[in-house]
TrEMBL record:
<feature type="transmembrane region" description="Helical">
    <location>
        <begin position="58"/>
        <end position="79"/>
    </location>
</feature>
<protein>
    <submittedName>
        <fullName>Alkaline phosphatase</fullName>
    </submittedName>
</protein>
<keyword id="KW-0472">Membrane</keyword>
<dbReference type="GO" id="GO:0005886">
    <property type="term" value="C:plasma membrane"/>
</dbReference>
<feature type="domain" description="VTT">
    <location>
        <begin position="38"/>
        <end position="164"/>
    </location>
</feature>
<dbReference type="InterPro" id="IPR051311">
    <property type="entry name" value="DedA_domain"/>
</dbReference>
<dbReference type="InterPro" id="IPR032816">
    <property type="entry name" value="VTT_dom"/>
</dbReference>
<dbReference type="Pfam" id="PF09335">
    <property type="entry name" value="VTT_dom"/>
</dbReference>
<feature type="transmembrane region" description="Helical">
    <location>
        <begin position="144"/>
        <end position="167"/>
    </location>
</feature>
<keyword id="KW-1133">Transmembrane helix</keyword>
<feature type="transmembrane region" description="Helical">
    <location>
        <begin position="20"/>
        <end position="38"/>
    </location>
</feature>
<keyword id="KW-0812">Transmembrane</keyword>
<keyword id="KW-1003">Cell membrane</keyword>
<feature type="transmembrane region" description="Helical">
    <location>
        <begin position="179"/>
        <end position="197"/>
    </location>
</feature>
Amino acid sequence: MISDILAQLANFIIKIISDSGYFGITFLMALESACIPIPSEVIMPFAGYLVAIKKLSLIWVIIWGAIGNLTGSIIAYWAGAYGGRSFILKYGKYILLKQEELDKAQRFFDKYGNLSIFFSRILPIVRTFISFPAGIAKMSFRKFCFYTFIGSLIWSAILSYIGVFLGENWESIGIYFRRFDWLILILLIVFVVLFLYKKLRKKQR
């Protein structure tokens, strides 16, 4: 079932880019960074394949891919800044999140935000959702945009070059990225479980 969903999603991505070119790349990459799980591991390699067959320009594929990521990230950032923080303050107690956690998140992004935003751009799953907590933590918007764009530019370039290199076999890269996706997902689940366990132990004491 999951494989069928992924296949349909890949077909949707291919159709959008085939029909609308650079706009399709920008649109899809914006969706991915706006917390909608549209895999850039399909978007950019396919765009790279279109470069290989001379239908698109490599430099513009990379640039528009990064612009799309930045656009979607800004949407997620402001959603976190204006809606996410007040939501957590009001309802966070039901999932063991309080003002204390928001303050910790803000201190983290003040200290490590530049690096975390930059490196998250080349990590599957994390890159899709990092902008929302950055907004909640009120990270410097200027720095957020700068490091998001630079990280996205590098990620777009890597995936596009892979697509160019693999040519008509560009889809084969998805197998390796899906394995990495599962690893990141498992690590995130472990982190959440440990966080909840620690909070419950503290509450019992």
